[in-house]
Amino acid sequence: MAGPDDFDPGGAFRAQVRDSLASDPMPALSTLAGRLGIPVEQVVHFALHRWASAGSEALLAGPPEVLGALRDAAEAGDLDRVRGIARFLLSAYEEDPA
Questions:
Q1: How far apart are alpha carbons 23 and 2 in whole angstroms?
Q2: In angstroms, rounded to a whole number, what is the distance separating the alpha carbons of residues 83 and 70?
Q3: What is the pLDDT of residue 58?
């Protein structure tokens, strides 16, 4: 079974997640929900839905950032990073190992 270092070689994504904890998105989402007159939970759900589906949508609009990262890793000969990016791209299509 692949572990975190196989999925995110070098920990760049995990570092971005950690760094994002320095700001709180809830005030913006709460304000938006209040102005729309809908529960903030629905706005949070929508934001997560858009993020999770952005890969497929981005393919229609132009090359997503992850493809540039894949190209850069391949050109650098960084096979571990190529494998990690491939696991990321395929993770939505593979069954949960847990």
A1: 30
A2: 9
A3: 58
- pTM of this prediction exceeds 0.70: no
Q: ∠ CA 24-25-30 to the nearest 5 degrees?
A: 120
Count of C-beta atoms within a 10 Å radius of residue 72: 13
C-alpha torsion angle, residues 24, 50, 58, 60 (rounded to 10): -160
Cβ atoms of 74 and 81 within 8 Å: the answer is no
67, pLDDT greater than 70: yes
Residue with tokens 């990073």: 81
- Mean pLDDT, all residues of the chain: 83
Domain ranges of the chain: 23-53, 63-98
